[in-house]
Amino acid sequence: MKKNKRIADRKSSKFWGIFKKIVLKVVPVSSYVYKKMHLKAVELTSSRRNTKKNKLSFDVSVVDSCNLNCVGCVAFSPLCKDVYIDVSSFEKDIKRIGELANGEVGYISLSGGEVLQHPKLIEILDITRKYLKKGDLSIITNGILLDKQSDMFWNTCRKNNVKIYITPYPIKLNIDKIIELAKEYLISVEWFSVGERDHFRKLPLNIKGDGDVSKNFRRCNNSNTCVVLRDGKIYPCGSPAVIKYFNEYFDQHFKVRDKDYIDIYTTNDIDEILDFVCKPIPFCRYCDIDNMKFGIAWRVSKKDIKEWI
User: Fold this and answer.
1) How far is CA 148 from the centre of its chain?
2) Average pLDDT for residues 169-185, to the nearest whole number?
């Protein structure tokens, strides 16, 4: 088994880490210049990023609510009450993906919200590996509950070769205890690279829905990399899968169209899904990429609509 990395010593790729340090010494992350550099870099790599993949990789939110509720959460977790995925529905969907993909995926990530809040997470891990025997299986967590998990949880992770990724927020975690448990059970536990520890970037929603779909897709670094499975549907992006929480809380009317997802029960071809997820969807019109902001200080959400628009 891959040797566990010490999560306290998180590193980016060597080249990118050095390059980023140099850039940030000259260009503040919250500056207009930094944003333009980011958007240009993303657009220049669009063709490579959006090339059709050989295997399906996707995320599943098993808990939509969260025990942290970060400002401007892209999953809208601060806006929803406790919402846990139904295990029988999850099994049905994962079984179907297994049939379409012959039991092999690139990866499947179980996330949220906060994944460790699900009372039947152990069962969910077993179900996932039952139908998807080949491919990386991981949990993405904020880590708050990680050192409090049972022996059964850790043994299940080991049995199913589960990797654990912790999002790096400026909160107090019992890192030494987590490292100790990871070593004891031979589990890979690493930091999940989502940006900087103390600040976020903000991709505002365009309430008018008049954005250029193709242009937005080319300049989105989540394109073809943040595929989501939810309620029997595959979405190329997580936003339309959970926009209902934003609509309900703020009385908004963002529309999800049939062409924003593909139903896994009406297709019999995994290639059809792989073709679909590497192309823009109508919902891309709601992204306001021109007004992206970087260097947003981390804090708990106040549930103000301005956090998302």
Assistant:
1) 23
2) 95
Q: Is residue 259 part of a domain?
A: yes
Q: Does residue 258 form part of some domain?
A: yes
> Residue 66's CB: how many other CB atoms inside 10 A?
22
CA max distance for the chain = 53
The two three-digit tokens of residue 138, written as one number: 């991981």
Residue 38 falls within a domain, yes or no? no
User: What is the predicted pLDDT for the residue at 51?
Assistant: 95
Q: How many structural domains are present in the chain?
A: 1
Beta bridge partners of 290: none
Structure tokens at 72: 């401007």
Q: pLDDT per residue over 90-128, tens digit each?
A: 999 999 999 999 999 999 999 999 999 999 999 999 999
CATH of the domain at 102: 3.20.20
User: What six digits make up the tokens of 249?
Assistant: 């809380």
Q: What is the rounded CA–CA span in Å between residue 148 and residue 166?
A: 15
pLDDT confidence band for 18 (50 / 70 / 90): low
Q: What is the dihedral of CA 172, 174, 176, 178, to 10 degrees?
A: -120
Percentage of the chain exceeding pLDDT 90: 80
Containing structural domain, residue 244: 45-307
